[in-house]
Amino acid sequence: MNFQAGEKLTLPVSRITDIGYMLGDEHEEVFMHKNETEEELFEGQEVDVFLYHDHSGRLAATAYVPNIGINELDWVVVTDVKPDLGVFVDIGVSKDVLIGRSDLPAHEEVWPEVGDELYCRLKRTSAGRLIGKLASTDNMKDISTAATPSMHNKNVSGRIYRTLYVGSYILTDERFLGFIHDSERQEEPRLGQRVTGRIIDVKENGEINVSLRPRKQEGQDEDAQVIYEYMESRGGAMPFWDKSHPEDIKNRFNLSKAAFKRAMGKLLKEGKVYQEEGWTYFKKGE
Protein backbone atom coordinates (compact mmCIF):
# COMPACT_ATOMS: atom_id res chain seq x y z
CA MET A 1 0.00 0.00 0.00
CA ASN A 2 1.04 3.62 -0.51
CA PHE A 3 0.82 5.67 2.66
CA GLN A 4 -1.12 8.92 2.32
CA ALA A 5 -1.50 11.97 4.53
CA GLY A 6 -4.78 11.98 6.41
CA GLU A 7 -4.89 8.22 6.93
CA LYS A 8 -5.43 6.66 10.36
CA LEU A 9 -3.60 3.35 10.45
CA THR A 10 -2.42 0.67 12.86
CA LEU A 11 1.23 -0.03 12.06
CA PRO A 12 3.95 -2.14 13.67
CA VAL A 13 7.25 -0.70 14.82
CA SER A 14 9.74 -2.06 12.29
CA ARG A 15 12.87 -0.29 13.55
CA ILE A 16 13.93 1.98 16.40
CA THR A 17 16.25 4.95 15.72
CA ASP A 18 18.00 7.44 17.99
CA ILE A 19 15.21 9.98 17.61
CA GLY A 20 12.16 7.92 16.80
CA TYR A 21 10.57 4.91 15.21
CA MET A 22 10.14 3.51 11.72
CA LEU A 23 6.66 2.09 11.28
CA GLY A 24 5.52 -0.40 8.62
CA ASP A 25 7.27 -3.31 6.97
CA GLU A 26 9.95 -4.13 4.40
CA HIS A 27 7.73 -2.76 1.62
CA GLU A 28 6.95 0.67 3.08
CA GLU A 29 7.91 2.61 6.18
CA VAL A 30 7.05 5.96 7.73
CA PHE A 31 8.93 7.80 10.46
CA MET A 32 7.47 8.86 13.82
CA HIS A 33 9.52 11.11 16.10
CA LYS A 34 9.67 10.19 19.77
CA ASN A 35 7.92 13.50 20.54
CA GLU A 36 4.87 12.20 18.67
CA THR A 37 4.00 9.53 21.22
CA GLU A 38 3.60 9.52 25.01
CA GLU A 39 4.98 6.00 25.47
CA GLU A 40 8.22 4.22 24.70
CA LEU A 41 7.65 1.66 21.95
CA PHE A 42 9.39 -1.62 21.14
CA GLU A 43 9.98 -3.46 17.88
CA GLY A 44 6.93 -5.35 16.67
CA GLN A 45 4.54 -3.33 18.80
CA GLU A 46 1.50 -2.09 16.90
CA VAL A 47 0.53 1.54 17.29
CA ASP A 48 -2.44 3.62 16.08
CA VAL A 49 -1.16 6.62 14.12
CA PHE A 50 -2.24 9.50 11.93
CA LEU A 51 -0.20 10.39 8.83
CA TYR A 52 0.60 13.99 7.93
CA HIS A 53 3.36 16.07 6.33
CA ASP A 54 5.73 17.50 8.91
CA HIS A 55 7.30 20.98 8.88
CA SER A 56 9.92 19.73 6.41
CA GLY A 57 7.25 18.48 4.04
CA ARG A 58 8.00 14.81 4.70
CA LEU A 59 5.27 12.25 5.30
CA ALA A 60 5.36 11.40 8.99
CA ALA A 61 3.29 9.68 11.66
CA THR A 62 1.94 10.80 15.02
CA ALA A 63 0.21 8.84 17.76
CA TYR A 64 -1.83 11.95 18.63
CA VAL A 65 -5.35 11.81 17.22
CA PRO A 66 -6.44 14.93 15.29
CA ASN A 67 -9.74 16.66 16.00
CA ILE A 68 -10.87 16.32 12.39
CA GLY A 69 -10.31 13.91 9.52
CA ILE A 70 -10.98 13.41 5.81
CA ASN A 71 -14.65 12.74 6.56
CA GLU A 72 -14.73 13.90 10.18
CA LEU A 73 -15.85 17.43 11.07
CA ASP A 74 -15.39 19.42 14.24
CA TRP A 75 -14.61 22.90 15.54
CA VAL A 76 -10.95 23.91 15.27
CA VAL A 77 -9.19 27.05 16.50
CA VAL A 78 -7.59 29.59 14.16
CA THR A 79 -3.89 29.97 15.02
CA ASP A 80 -2.60 32.31 12.30
CA VAL A 81 -3.86 34.53 9.48
CA LYS A 82 -1.91 34.97 6.24
CA PRO A 83 -3.69 37.37 3.84
CA ASP A 84 -1.88 35.93 0.83
CA LEU A 85 -2.70 32.32 1.76
CA GLY A 86 -5.65 32.00 4.15
CA VAL A 87 -5.84 30.96 7.78
CA PHE A 88 -4.15 28.17 9.71
CA VAL A 89 -6.06 26.03 12.22
CA ASP A 90 -4.98 23.71 15.02
CA ILE A 91 -6.22 20.18 14.32
CA GLY A 92 -4.61 18.61 17.37
CA VAL A 93 -1.26 17.55 15.89
CA SER A 94 2.08 19.38 15.76
CA LYS A 95 1.46 20.79 12.26
CA ASP A 96 -1.33 23.31 11.71
CA VAL A 97 -3.44 23.04 8.56
CA LEU A 98 -4.22 25.75 6.03
CA ILE A 99 -7.72 26.76 5.00
CA GLY A 100 -7.10 28.52 1.69
CA ARG A 101 -8.29 32.03 0.90
CA SER A 102 -10.58 30.62 -1.83
CA ASP A 103 -12.56 28.94 0.98
CA LEU A 104 -12.88 32.19 2.93
CA PRO A 105 -15.08 35.28 2.44
CA ALA A 106 -14.14 37.57 -0.45
CA HIS A 107 -13.74 40.49 1.97
CA GLU A 108 -10.81 40.02 4.32
CA GLU A 109 -12.51 42.29 6.88
CA VAL A 110 -14.71 39.34 7.91
CA TRP A 111 -11.98 36.70 7.85
CA PRO A 112 -11.50 34.86 11.15
CA GLU A 113 -9.05 36.19 13.69
CA VAL A 114 -6.69 34.15 15.87
CA GLY A 115 -8.81 32.41 18.50
CA ASP A 116 -11.97 32.21 16.40
CA GLU A 117 -13.31 28.72 15.68
CA LEU A 118 -14.33 27.12 12.38
CA TYR A 119 -16.30 23.95 11.72
CA CYS A 120 -14.38 22.03 9.09
CA ARG A 121 -12.86 18.79 7.84
CA LEU A 122 -9.66 17.71 6.12
CA LYS A 123 -9.20 17.29 2.38
CA ARG A 124 -6.34 15.69 0.52
CA THR A 125 -5.18 17.71 -2.50
CA SER A 126 -4.12 16.20 -5.83
CA ALA A 127 -0.52 16.57 -4.60
CA GLY A 128 -1.36 14.53 -1.48
CA ARG A 129 -1.22 17.48 0.93
CA LEU A 130 -3.76 18.08 3.69
CA ILE A 131 -5.81 21.25 3.75
CA GLY A 132 -8.83 22.30 5.76
CA LYS A 133 -12.27 22.72 4.18
CA LEU A 134 -15.15 24.60 5.75
CA ALA A 135 -18.29 22.62 6.45
CA SER A 136 -21.07 22.88 3.90
CA THR A 137 -24.62 23.99 4.65
CA ASP A 138 -25.68 20.34 4.55
CA ASN A 139 -22.98 19.49 7.09
CA MET A 140 -24.37 22.15 9.43
CA LYS A 141 -27.90 20.84 8.98
CA ASP A 142 -26.68 17.35 9.89
CA ILE A 143 -25.64 18.50 13.37
CA SER A 144 -28.48 20.96 13.95
CA THR A 145 -31.64 20.63 16.00
CA ALA A 146 -34.96 22.40 15.55
CA ALA A 147 -35.95 25.33 17.74
CA THR A 148 -39.47 25.50 19.17
CA PRO A 149 -41.76 28.56 19.15
CA SER A 150 -41.19 28.90 22.91
CA MET A 151 -37.63 30.07 22.10
CA HIS A 152 -38.92 33.32 20.59
CA ASN A 153 -37.22 36.37 22.13
CA LYS A 154 -34.74 34.18 24.05
CA ASN A 155 -31.04 35.08 24.11
CA VAL A 156 -28.71 32.73 22.24
CA SER A 157 -24.97 32.54 21.63
CA GLY A 158 -23.11 30.77 18.88
CA ARG A 159 -20.56 30.99 16.09
CA ILE A 160 -20.82 32.44 12.61
CA TYR A 161 -20.29 29.70 10.03
CA ARG A 162 -21.08 31.58 6.82
CA THR A 163 -21.05 35.25 5.84
CA LEU A 164 -22.86 36.98 2.99
CA TYR A 165 -23.51 40.59 2.04
CA VAL A 166 -27.18 40.17 3.00
CA GLY A 167 -26.48 38.56 6.36
CA SER A 168 -24.66 36.00 8.48
CA TYR A 169 -25.42 32.39 9.35
CA ILE A 170 -25.01 31.15 12.92
CA LEU A 171 -25.03 27.81 14.72
CA THR A 172 -26.05 28.41 18.33
CA ASP A 173 -24.86 26.54 21.40
CA GLU A 174 -28.21 24.72 21.33
CA ARG A 175 -27.37 23.77 17.70
CA PHE A 176 -30.12 25.90 16.21
CA LEU A 177 -29.40 27.07 12.69
CA GLY A 178 -30.00 30.80 12.39
CA PHE A 179 -29.77 33.74 10.03
CA ILE A 180 -28.83 37.31 10.99
CA HIS A 181 -30.08 39.79 8.40
CA ASP A 182 -27.75 42.72 7.77
CA SER A 183 -30.39 45.04 9.22
CA GLU A 184 -30.17 43.13 12.51
CA ARG A 185 -26.48 43.76 13.11
CA GLN A 186 -24.61 46.98 13.77
CA GLU A 187 -21.49 45.60 12.12
CA GLU A 188 -20.82 42.47 10.13
CA PRO A 189 -19.42 39.69 12.36
CA ARG A 190 -16.40 37.66 11.31
CA LEU A 191 -16.50 34.08 10.10
CA GLY A 192 -15.89 31.95 13.20
CA GLN A 193 -16.68 34.80 15.60
CA ARG A 194 -18.72 34.05 18.71
CA VAL A 195 -21.72 36.35 19.03
CA THR A 196 -24.75 36.73 21.29
CA GLY A 197 -28.18 37.87 20.17
CA ARG A 198 -31.86 37.13 20.57
CA ILE A 199 -34.30 35.04 18.56
CA ILE A 200 -36.76 37.26 16.69
CA ASP A 201 -38.47 34.51 14.67
CA VAL A 202 -38.78 30.72 14.71
CA LYS A 203 -39.59 29.23 11.32
CA GLU A 204 -41.74 26.16 10.68
CA ASN A 205 -38.64 24.06 9.96
CA GLY A 206 -37.13 25.00 13.32
CA GLU A 207 -34.55 27.40 11.95
CA ILE A 208 -34.39 30.85 13.51
CA ASN A 209 -33.81 34.50 12.73
CA VAL A 210 -31.51 36.26 15.15
CA SER A 211 -30.90 39.92 15.95
CA LEU A 212 -27.59 41.19 17.30
CA ARG A 213 -29.11 44.56 18.06
CA PRO A 214 -29.88 45.31 21.71
CA ARG A 215 -33.45 45.20 22.96
CA LYS A 216 -35.22 48.53 22.71
CA GLN A 217 -34.52 49.57 26.32
CA GLU A 218 -30.87 48.48 26.12
CA GLY A 219 -30.47 50.20 22.77
CA GLN A 220 -32.13 53.34 24.06
CA ASP A 221 -29.63 53.52 26.92
CA GLU A 222 -26.66 53.04 24.58
CA ASP A 223 -27.95 55.55 22.04
CA ALA A 224 -28.60 58.15 24.73
CA GLN A 225 -25.02 57.71 25.94
CA VAL A 226 -23.66 58.23 22.41
CA ILE A 227 -25.67 61.45 22.04
CA TYR A 228 -24.69 62.65 25.51
CA GLU A 229 -20.97 62.05 24.86
CA TYR A 230 -21.22 63.87 21.52
CA MET A 231 -22.76 66.86 23.28
CA GLU A 232 -19.98 66.77 25.88
CA SER A 233 -17.41 66.92 23.09
CA ARG A 234 -19.11 70.09 21.83
CA GLY A 235 -19.31 71.86 25.17
CA GLY A 236 -22.88 70.81 25.95
CA ALA A 237 -24.74 71.86 22.77
CA MET A 238 -25.45 70.33 19.37
CA PRO A 239 -27.38 71.40 16.24
CA PHE A 240 -29.73 68.40 16.37
CA TRP A 241 -33.16 67.95 17.89
CA ASP A 242 -36.33 65.88 17.46
CA LYS A 243 -37.16 67.53 14.13
CA SER A 244 -33.74 67.12 12.53
CA HIS A 245 -33.64 65.46 9.12
CA PRO A 246 -33.31 61.63 9.25
CA GLU A 247 -30.29 61.64 6.91
CA ASP A 248 -28.46 64.16 9.09
CA ILE A 249 -29.11 62.00 12.15
CA LYS A 250 -27.97 58.87 10.30
CA ASN A 251 -24.78 60.52 9.07
CA ARG A 252 -23.82 61.87 12.50
CA PHE A 253 -24.97 59.12 14.90
CA ASN A 254 -25.65 56.10 12.66
CA LEU A 255 -29.14 55.98 14.19
CA SER A 256 -32.59 55.91 12.66
CA LYS A 257 -34.85 58.88 13.32
CA ALA A 258 -37.01 56.68 15.58
CA ALA A 259 -34.04 55.47 17.64
CA PHE A 260 -32.73 59.04 17.93
CA LYS A 261 -36.09 60.30 19.20
CA ARG A 262 -36.32 57.48 21.77
CA ALA A 263 -32.84 58.30 23.07
CA MET A 264 -33.57 62.05 23.13
CA GLY A 265 -36.82 61.34 24.95
CA LYS A 266 -34.86 59.50 27.63
CA LEU A 267 -32.44 62.43 28.07
CA LEU A 268 -35.31 64.94 28.17
CA LYS A 269 -37.30 62.87 30.68
CA GLU A 270 -34.25 62.58 32.93
CA GLY A 271 -33.88 66.36 32.81
CA LYS A 272 -30.38 66.24 31.37
CA VAL A 273 -31.08 68.34 28.25
CA TYR A 274 -33.54 70.78 26.72
CA GLN A 275 -34.27 71.75 23.11
CA GLU A 276 -34.63 75.17 21.50
CA GLU A 277 -34.82 76.33 17.86
CA GLY A 278 -33.17 73.28 16.31
CA TRP A 279 -30.53 72.83 19.01
CA THR A 280 -30.22 70.59 22.07
CA TYR A 281 -28.44 71.90 25.18
CA PHE A 282 -27.28 70.53 28.51
CA LYS A 283 -29.38 71.80 31.37
CA LYS A 284 -27.58 73.84 33.99
CA GLY A 285 -25.60 71.63 36.29
CA GLU A 286 -25.01 69.03 33.61
CATH class division of the largest domain = Mainly Alpha
The CATH superfamily of the largest domain appears as Winged helix-like DNA-binding domain superfamily/Winged helix DNA-binding domain
Q: Which consecutive residue ranges, at least 5 long each, have pLDDT under 50? A: none
Strand content is 35-45%
The total of beta strands comes to: 18
Helix/strand order, N-terminal first: EEEEEEEEEEHEEEEEHEHHEE
Q: Cα-atom Rg, whole angstroms?
A: 27 Å
What strand order characterises the main sheet?
Answer: 3-2-1-4-5
Biggest sheet layout: 5 strands, antiparallel
| Total helical elements | 4
> What is the CATH topology assignment of the largest domain?
Arc Repressor Mutant, subunit A
N-to-C CA distance: 81 Å
Fraction of residues in helices?
10-25%
Q: What overall geometry do the principal axes of the alpha carbons give? A: elongated
Description:
By secondary structure, this protein is of the alpha+beta class. It folds into four domains: 55 residues, OB fold (Dihydrolipoamide Acetyltransferase, E2P) (Beta Barrel); 62 residues, OB fold (Dihydrolipoamide Acetyltransferase, E2P); 66 residues, Beta Barrel (OB fold (Dihydrolipoamide Acetyltransferase, E2P)), CATH 2.40.50; 67 residues, Arc Repressor Mutant, subunit A, CATH 1.10.10. Helix content is 16%, strand content 37%. The chain is built from four helices and 18 strands. The strands form four sheets. Strands 3-2-1-4-5 form a five-stranded antiparallel β-sheet, with no helix packed on it. A five-stranded antiparallel β-sheet has the order 8-7-6-9-10, with no helix packed on it. The chain has a five-stranded mixed barrel with strand order 11-12-13-15-14. Strand 4 and strand 5 form a beta hairpin. Helix 2 packs across helix 4. The protein is elongated and about 95 Å long. The N and C termini lie far apart (81 Å). 26% of the residues are buried. The mean pLDDT is 92. It holds the Pfam family CvfB_1st. Belongs to the CvfB family. One of its GO terms (molecular function) is nucleic acid binding. This is S1 motif domain-containing protein. InterPro entries: CvfB_fam, CvfB_S1_2nd, CvfB_S1_3rd, CvfB_S1_st, CvfB_WH, NA-bd_OB-fold, S1_domain, WH-like_DNA-bd_sf.
